[in-house]
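F.,

This is the one I mentioned.
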């Protein structure tokens, strides 16, 4: 089965080469990076790596980049699509366990859960994540242990069914809503997050969380 790794990237020039090299060394050749309006040298670096690149002239946000990435991977013939953060937080060694439930026809969508293997996960991140899980449950009536995880896997069927309408951080909860709404089979697997000062700086702040919650409520009322 043809697996594509989709990476949303916005101003990731300091880390994107390391991430792409790790994927290449692990044997993942089908990589699509969505350069989401970066103003640094992310675009130049991507050209040197020879990966598939989708360009946004303006920054659309995480949701916009992932929507473009899923559509692009489907056009390139992907059977399985992995979403993978550009900040170095994910381990390439977790990808096989993400793919396995789809290959074995046990799931249509898989979420990599950091809270199922929380060693090294900062307490503030655990707290933010728990609150986000509760909000997702209240709004969309589905419980997951890590609603904000960036490491996900989708079968071709799931990727074709999922409709991404949000543009920014609220997309993580929107994925959960779509999985339930489209009656897709979901499985969570434990993953190990790699936390650095850089990856921690890219996460949600309190005020970003508040704005994300507001947007999710509006999304819920409109859908």
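My design for it:
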């Amino acid at each position: 089965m043809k697996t594509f790794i989709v990476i949303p990237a916005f101003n990731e020039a300091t880390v994107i080469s390391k991430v792409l090299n790790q994927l290449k060394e692990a044997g993942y050749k089908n990589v699509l990076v969505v350069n989401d309006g970066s103003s640094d040298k992310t675009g130049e670096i991507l050209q040197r790596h020879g990966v598939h690149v989708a360009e946004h002239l303006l920054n659309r946000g995480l949701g916009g980049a992932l929507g473009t990435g899923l559509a692009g991977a489907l056009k390139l013939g992907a059977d399985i699509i992995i979403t993978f953060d550009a900040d170095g937080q994910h381990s390439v060694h977790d990808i096989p366990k993400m793919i396995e439930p789809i290959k074995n026809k046990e799931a249509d969508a898989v979420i990599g859960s950091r809270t199922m293997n929380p060693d090294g996960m900062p307490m503030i991140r655990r707290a933010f994540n728990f609150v986000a899980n509760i909000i997702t449950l209240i709004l969309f009536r589905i419980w997951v242990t890590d609603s904000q995880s960036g490491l996900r896997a989708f079968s071709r069927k799931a990727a074709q069914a999922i409709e991404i309408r949000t543009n920014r951080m609220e997309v993580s909860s929107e994925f959960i809503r779509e999985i339930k709404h489209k009656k897709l089979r979901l499985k969570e697997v434990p993953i190990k997050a790699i936390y650095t000062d850089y990856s921690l700086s890219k996460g949600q702040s309190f005020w970003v969380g508040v704005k994300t919650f507001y947007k999710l409520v509006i999304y819920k009322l409109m859908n």
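Residues 3-222 form a domain with the Spore Coat Polysaccharide Biosynthesis Protein SpsA; Chain A fold (CATH 3.90.550.10).

Talk soon.
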